Amino acid sequence: VAREKKTVLVSGASTGIGRATVRRLAERGHRVFAGVRKEEDAESIREDANALSRGGELEPVQLDVTEEEDIRAVAEKLKVEGLQLDGLVNNAGVVVACPLEALPLEDLRRQFEVNLFSHAAVTQAFLPSLRAARGRIINMSSIAGRISNPFMGAYCSSKFALEAYSDALRMELAPWGIRVSLVEPGPIKTPIWEKSNQAAVELQGRTDAERLDLYMSGMERMQEVAEFSVRTAPGASKVARCVTHALESRFARRRYPVGHLIWLQLYAGTLSPAALRDWATGLVLRWPAGSKL
User: Fold this and answer.
1) Are the C-beta atoms of 240 and 188 separated by less than 8 Å?
2) 259-267 contacts, C-beta under 8 A, 24 or more apart
3) Whole-prediction pTM value?
4) Closest CA to 222 of 151, 280, 293
5) What is the pLDDT of residues 145-173, one digit of tens each?
6) Catalytic residues
7) Distance of alpha carbon 169 from alpha carbon 167, whole angstroms
């Protein structure tokens, strides 16, 4: 059965989940605009486009989601080409990892700027086109949008906010038949973790060393847990399949948790008593005996 060809915009498409998503959607015959920030990433996307074999189209576009000019330019490009947007995948994101006591407020603001406010800006810019096409919005959240972890408070907070934003948006847009889905990956093998580690080292160089030292043993243990989780995690293609379902299926879900043992993590994290989860966290991070959680 022939699949309906859709026009889709994906932000943060240079690597990881975004890159796997644009490849998969293009291979399935859709016209895909891949938002990237650097010319070398655009050139790499063009190489992928030349290798397509199933009739889809893949085109890089300059899209730094924190730059209003980039957003306007892409919206104008679609308008000039007479295209209506069937799907918007808000995938761009960053990870800010630091104890909240030591985290500079400008870095907390940047976490929200990229992971929440930029998605709102992109969504507002393309909603007229999505409304005309009765299109779909897929927001890339995380299991961290439902379960918060120590030293990841900024990232988790931004994803919690994205979850609430998406829930409200879904209900508000229902009269026009615009579906809004959240994809909630657990640990996934992507370059974002290497980037976040590098960013964390750079951030720690700008924070109050005395305050940071208070948390160092717990941070090192958390790093070990994170590295183990990523080593055993599935690849980005598994997330891309969920995005594809949210875009194509008549029965698109509101949420797509994805990852190894993801339902167990969700149930343990959201249904177990907070005291039990705090106790388990203390064991994993080897808090001193008598720590009050």
Assistant:
1) no
2) 259/143, 259/185, 259/186, 259/187, 259/188, 259/233, 259/234, 260/186, 260/187, 260/232, 260/233, 260/234, 261/186, 262/143, 262/184, 262/186, 265/143, 265/147, 265/186, 266/143, 266/146, 266/147
3) 0.92
4) 151
5) 999 999 999 999 999 999 999 999 999 99
6) 155
7) 5
